[in-house]
Amino acid sequence: MSQPTFYNAHHSPVGAFATLTLGEPGARGGLGHQLGAPAGHSVFVGCQVDGAKRFVALPFFAEAASGDEDRYQVEGAAERAPSVLSSFAEAEIERRLTPSLDEWCAGDLRFRIVSPPWSVPEPGSDAASEKAALLPAITAELTLDNSAGTTARKVFFGFSNDDRTQGMRHLRPESGAGFAVGDSVGVQTDHPKAWTANHFSVEQILLGEEPGLEANMLGETTLLVAEAAPGEVLTLRLAIGWMKTGWVTTGLRCRYAFTEHFDRLESVLGEGLATWAARLSQAELMDARLSPDGLSADQAWTLSMAIRSHYGSTQALVDESGRPIWMVNEGEYRMMNTFDLTADQVFFELLMNPWTVRNELDLFADRYAYHDEIGGQRAIAFTHDMGVANQFSPPGYSSYERPGLDDCFSYMSHEELVNWVCCAGAYLAETDDTKWLNARRDIFEECLQSLLLRDHPDPEQRDGIMSIDSGRCEGGAEITTYDSLDTSLGQARNSAYLAGKTAAAYAILARFLGSDEAREQVRRALKTLADSADAEGCMASVLEEGGHGSRIIPVIEGLIFFREAGVLADWEKDETFVGFLEACRRHLAAVLKPGVCLFDDGGWKLSSTANNSWLSKIYLCQHIARSMLGGGDLRAYAEADRAHNGWILNPDSRFWCWSDQMVSGRAMGSRYYPRGVTSILWLKELR
Predict the structure, then answer these.
(1) How far apart are CA 681 and CA 677, in angstroms?
(2) Which site among 131, 294, 370, 396 is 20 to 30 Å from 649 CA-CA?
(3) What is the C-alpha to C-alpha distance for residues 160 and 43, in angstroms, rounded to an integer?
(4) For residues 41 and 76, is the Cβ–Cβ distance under 8 A?
């Protein structure tokens, strides 16, 4: 795939739930904070045409760029400035995206945004590193090469404010210039030749013919401007930052962790400029780590987009007691630490900052565990999420789950129970944190007993598969993370997808509890799955009488936790496990065919009976197929990778940066989403 030009991407600090979303033409990006969609601001990045009172800019602004001056001149419309601003033609613009850098070049203008991923140290371990990692700012570089110019030319960066609760203000640093929207978001440079100007019309600012704009505050558009002399190459280093003090959540009152290091917006912007060079070095370091040689252009682009969208949803908080809370918000839905996303994001978080996984598991265990009734006995489970839109839900309840349903919004008790065990196993494999294991052993033991009861209260009738719905369903039926798909993947009871993950959970419990009963349950589950295969080698999607008749890919999904939780070596020579691996190979060979689990463009179709295919799960299953089932090397899926990126770049999709739920190649749900970092597993194939 040649590098595309126009699509939105996140540019976000770590843990601030903030983003400069940019890349789609028009006012379709902007500086957002705690939003589930792009802010919809006009962003102005451009320069003056040599020898003319005309200006060109990257096309990230609305064509009608004048403001609401008429509200102040009630007996006649304000005189409009002539149209002097146009967009660069698409053919003039080149773009390069990496996990840390996003760069546009157009003519003699270059604009580069620097937003590197950071590994956040465990709170309390290293204050200086924590301050650097959690700085709620990104940096940028705007360069105008006027070395061949014959006249002085302006270069500018700014945006329009649509927040009626806060107006624009000018910042007066000791060196350079800047502006802000109240105390929430701002931009600053340290260049001594720069100034700011505010007006209703971007045209009037650029023409510079009206006096006093350096002090005006009524307009909704502000630009940071500098002028390059003939023969000069002028570069503005920019810091773009966010600030929000005080309590930002309810239910469980929390503030942003960055407020322990920064008390106002000016301190954020100043630190961004003071550490500008260090942040560029960090970007180069992280690009080498997260986008190494060996990935195809399609895969590198996928990973860059996914990492950016993940950080756009992250939130590092501190509660009233001083306890750190790591939060990943669920994209457009803004649900907090949705557990079935956590189980897919765990591989990335363990690579970057393993303590955050333990932090999430502890909060689920301490506040969001509950006991439902299975066969007259109490059984532990965990909620689907911790709340929504900065509102923590009550202990033991999610914002999502409701009784009496059998599809979307029903309970995911078994799914989240399995996810707690699988994430805990992966965390222990990465950290060897025996102290935490010993402190949580009672939860592990409760999880084992709960899994057994959900198979069947009578040990003689167990087959390793979840077959009893939670009492909280009240006559409804449990669902899986695939809540918007049909029964082939959406139903929890006797789900083949969920059976594979359940087997992995049993294997983890067998390792850490030394349980023979858990070990036997692994064999039962894997045998049940393998025995369901038909004459073509396809395992059933629903393991009950009558089945469902569909073919699914995620029957293989649970295999990842055998490896990532460090228990694969316990099973590599086990006859039942070896037989299941072979069954998975036959199954994939049978389903990865056009008209079954492949779309016409070569993209993967998770279920043969649903056109809703989730990219995060496709990335995961691709990795399992290649690395655990001998399904080809990293580049063996070029056609599929090209198709999947085409879905993101579909004109109906690219506004949303990275999205998960793709219906026939268009983003229809789970947009602006953090879950695509399952693609980080691809890097393990390069070792």
Answers:
(1) 8
(2) 294
(3) 7
(4) no
Sheet holding 324-328, edge to edge: 254-256, 314-319, 324-328
How many CA atoms within 13 Å lie on the side-chain side of 106?
24
CA distance 612 to 629: 25
- Please name the amino acid found at residue 342: T
CA distance 391 to 455: 34
Q: 299, 679 in Cβ contact below 8 A?
A: yes
Maximum distance among all Cα pairs of the chain, rounded to whole angstroms? 89
Give the total residue count for the chain.
Answer: 687
State whether the Cα torsion 24-28-33-37 is positive or negative: negative
Could you give the residue ranges of the DSSP H alpha helices within 241-369?
A: 265-274, 276-290, 297-311, 339-352, 355-367
Q: Where are the beta strands (DSSP E) in 88-200?
A: 93-97, 101-106, 109-114, 137-145, 153-160, 168-171, 177-181, 185-189, 195-199
Contact 682, 623 (CB under 8 A): yes
Q: What is the pLDDT of residue 207?
A: 93
Distances in whole angstroms, Cα of residue 73 to Cα of each of 202, 212, 498, 675: 18, 19, 65, 49
pLDDT in tens, 260-272: 999 999 999 999 9
Residue type present at position 497: Y
Neighbour order of strands in the sheet with 195-199: 85-87, 55-57, 43-48, 153-160, 221-228, 195-199
- C-alpha 461/C-alpha 470 separation (Å) is 18
Q: What is the pLDDT of residue 71?
A: 59
Residue 408, pLDDT score:
97
Long-range contact set of residues 47-52: C-beta below 8 Å, sequence gap at least 24: 47/107, 47/108, 47/109, 47/144, 47/153, 47/154, 47/155, 47/156, 48/153, 48/154, 48/155, 48/206, 49/153, 50/146, 50/149, 50/150, 50/151, 50/153, 51/150, 51/151
Task: Determine phi and psi for 539, rounding to 5 degrees.
Answer: -75, 150
CA–CA separation, 543 vs 337, rounded Å? 30
Query: One-letter amino acid identity for 417?
Result: L
**Which residues, other chains included, contact 38 with Cβ-Cβ below 8 Å and sequence gap of 6+?**
8, 21, 24, 28, 29, 30, 32, 655, 656, 657, 672
Cβ-count burial 418-428 (b if 16+ within 10 Å, e if not): bbbbbbbbbbb
Q: Are 384 and 401 in contact (CB under 8 A)?
A: yes
Q: 441-455 and 516-531 are packed helices; what angle lies between their axes, rounded to 10 degrees?
A: 40
- Residue 632's CB is within 10 A of a number of other CB atoms, namely 11
Q: What per-residue confidence (pLDDT) applies to 257?
A: 98
| 620: exposed, middle or buried (Cβ count in 10 Å: 0-12, 13-18, 19+) | buried
Q: In which residue ranges of the chain is pLDDT below 70?
A: 1-3, 64-82
Asked if 413 and 478 touch (Cβ cutoff 8 Å), the reply is yes
**Per-position DSSP letters for 9-50, written without gaps between them:** B----TTB-EEEEB-STTT-BEEEES-SS---B-EEEEEEPT
CA–CA gap between residue 640 and residue 541 (Å, rounded): 23
Q: Which residue has the tokens 């909060």?
A: 363
Determine the pLDDT at residue 389: 98
- The pTM (predicted TM-score) of the whole model is 0.97
Could you tell me the end-to-end alpha-carbon distance of the chain, in angstroms, rounded to an integer? Answer: 24
Distance (Å, rounded) from C-alpha 675 to C-alpha 619?
10
Element spanning 431, H or E:
helix 413-431
Domain residue spans in the chain? 18-287, 330-590, 611-687
